[in-house]
Amino acid sequence: MDRLLGAMTVASLLLIGLVLASVRREHIRVEYSISWLAAGLALLVLSLWKSLDQRIALVLKIPDLAVSLLTVCGVVFLAVLFAFSLRLSQLKDSSIKLAQRVAILEYRLESLAAESAPNKSSLRAEAAGAQGTRAKLGQPAR
Amino acid sequence: MVVNKLMVLIPAYNEEGAVASVVEEVRAVVPDATILVVDDCSEDHTIREAQRIGASVLPLPHHLGLGGCVQAGYRLAFELDFDYVIRVDGDGQHDPRDIPALLTALQRENCEMVIGSRFLNAENPRRVLLRGGWCRALGIALFRSILRPILGRPVSDPTSGFVGVNRKALDVFSRAFPLEYPEIEALVVLQRRRFRFMEVPCRIRVRRAGKSSITAIKAFYFPVHVLLGVFVNVLLFPSSRIGRILRK
After folding, report:
1. How many domains in chain A?
2. Which one of A96, A109, A111 makes the best mutation probe of the B interface by having the most chain B beta carbons within 10 Å?
């Protein structure tokens, strides 16, 4: 048990150190490091405070201290991963909307440029010229 | 046939070998329609090929996948006040000669979405079903049986990407459209809003160039993803008790 707690102390210190180093190098943004730092600190406290572990094992009704400790660790990491899944999903939605908006704006801008300067030899102007007004944005054939 | 603001939407990803001929074929069938190629950040010369042939191109800044790509086209079409959008795949599998049938159905049948079905009126539907292999045939059969009670009617080709929508559906899809493997989920999204759809027979051809995005691993991932998407959409049905609880 002591060996497990020792390993947990080392692992939590490594995790905290790694996260802090990554924040310092700006590999992880501060707001995303908080969940990992909190998880690392929770593990550190659990690994150093044996009476707390025993109380948790009692509450969870798991007789084996090691199993109860690993269960708590698992829950902590699952919570962190779930929080990041939520954040990732939000970011993906935003990124898709942004990409679509950028593409549409770029398209409209080029079409406006092609309309206002038809003699410019841009690809858009050539395409629009080849197609007549049909291919121009906002002027679909009726 | 009166063509009121029709856009033919061609989602394309690495389709330099086929996109130009698809655009040409579409133009020959519906010369008055606006043809929009939505390029999903291809790594080849898809954009150049589409522009060479005179199509309008909407180039996405990064790869979004089929759903995101199609939705970008729907958004643009909605913003530009198009009345109808017909989606034709950029690999040449859909025969543009079937576009008028889809458009006529959209205009006359008062439905929000029309699906080009390769199985409807086929001489030997089982042979057509098995043409894509056992795995795909099983998948289609599975989705048919799952969708039937949800939609309240049978659908012969739920995975068809040859789809036409009117402005009402365009309004919905421009705001909410499934991002991966969108065809099946899109049907449930429409059903949620009590929109109508119908199927018209269409021809299907072998792809001219490029390769299918469904790889061996994705073939297993695809049904799981779609089933989950369908399940989540069913939960959002207004009549769903679980949906009501979740919405609270």
Report:
1. 1
2. A96
Nearest to A103 among B32, B61, B179 (CB): B61
Distance from CA of A78 to the nearest CA of B (A): 21
Domains of chain B: 6-247 (3.90.550.10)
Min Cα separation B9/chain A (Å): 13
A77 domain residue, yes or no: yes
Tell the residue number behind the tokens 């025969």, with chain if given.
B95
Whole-number Å distance between alpha carbons of B113 and A113? 35
Cα(A140)–Cα(A79) distance, rounded to whole angstroms? 51
Question: Which structural domain, as residue segments, surrounds residue A69?
Answer: 2-135
Would A140 be classed as within a structural domain?
Answer: no
Is this complex scored with an ipTM above 0.85? no
Rounded Cα gap, residues B176 and B188, in angstroms: 12
Is residue A141 in some structural domain?
Answer: no
Assigned domain for A103 exists: yes
Q: Nearest residue on chain B to A100, judged by CA atoms? A: B72
Instruction: Using CB atoms, pick whichever of A96, A137, A138 lies closest to residue B64.
Output: A96
Q: pLDDT tens, B121-158? A: 777 777 777 776 777 788 888 889 988 888 888 888 88
Which tens digit of pLDDT belongs to each residue from B46-80? 999 999 998 999 999 999 999 999 999 999 999 99
Q: How many Å lie between the alpha carbon of B3 and the closest alpha carbon of chain A?
A: 6
Cα dihedral value B122, B126, B131, B132, nearest 10: 110
